Amino acid sequence: MTSPLITLEEHFLAATFTDDPSGDDKYTEQLKHIPGLSEKLTDLDNIRIHHMDAGHVSFQVISHCPGAKTVAQCRAANDQLAHAIEKHPERFAGFAALDVSVPAAAAAELRRCVTELGFRGTLVDSHTPEGAYFDGPAYDVLWEAAQQLDVPIYIHPTWATDEQIQLLYAGETIPQAATTSMSSSGFGWHADVATHFLRLFAAGVFDRFPKLKIILGHFGETLPFMVERVGALSKRWGTYTRDFRQVWRENVWVTTSGVWGLAPMACLLRNTSVRRILYSVDYPFAKNEDGLTWWGELVDSGLLSEDALELVAHGNAEELLGVKATHRYD
């Protein structure tokens, strides 16, 4: 019997968005390149479970796709997800969708989702639709709520603003397809999350909220390769209760979502505890089957002991989120 696998960067698109013809059309670019994506995104039932079984995913923590969301849309999306979890409690759990443009409302919805709906934390976009990050004092209400509730905040990439695209990724010599990819999943998404995390540290968020739990996807959004350099140079940024390396060790968890290579894992293991590494897929933007193939390569590589493999597969997620993977595959 193989190790159960828990995944936690797994997305859906709520009915409140798919029923709205004026919804964010930025999904169109993704829809063109991933067969069946729309059907997979909108399903919270048998289609999703079928694809979980294909990748031996025992338990999936589901969250909403990136993009602008109103307070009302978030509440409706969270209620829809809660109903799906009630139907499949042995297979699904939830991360709350929040309107990060309104910090107080986001904090209130997080509290509702955790205390009333049983959600395990939240997955939030890496900036507001206007491009604002969450290091200002207005967002202390959200960090405080997460710390008090003892649940993680997963900082997830979102679409670049038009200003970011023009400044960093567009140009007369750059094909439009390259601009679109570089500003999103090809690079820009990951750099944006890394920048956001560095801003949180620089602004003293982890001094004010020392028990805050942050999850970073895609093998840490480029930061593991830079931990030593950032750790050394961040000493020039100011005076902090704990230095960058200590915050990285104590406040951060990293998932494997959507990166199918052994080199990132080898790098991560050199500066990050194996107890802070979480298997994930990034469904349906990545395939559970590809994740399973990569997992087999990791098992065969010898990078991790049997005990460490169990931690990454499910043990760390169970401890962090208070869930349990009971569904097994032979």
UniProtKB/TrEMBL annotation:
Stored InterPro entries: ACMSD, Amidohydro-rel, Metal_Hydrolase
Keywords tagged on the record: Decarboxylase, Lyase
GO CC annotation terms, alphabetical: cytosol
Cited Gene3D superfamilies: Metal-dependent hydrolases
A Pfam family it matches: Amidohydro_2
Annotated GO biological process: secondary metabolic process
Domain named Amidohydrolase-related: residues: 70-322
GO MF term set: carboxy-lyase activity; hydrolase activity
UniProt cross-references to SUPFAM superfamilies, sorted A to Z: Metallo-dependent hydrolases (SSF51556)
UniProt family annotation: Belongs to the metallo-dependent hydrolases superfamily.
The protein's name in its UniProt record: Amidohydrolase-related domain-containing protein
Protein's organism: Cyphellophora europaea (strain CBS 101466)
Lineage: Eukaryota, Fungi, Dikarya, Ascomycota, Pezizomycotina
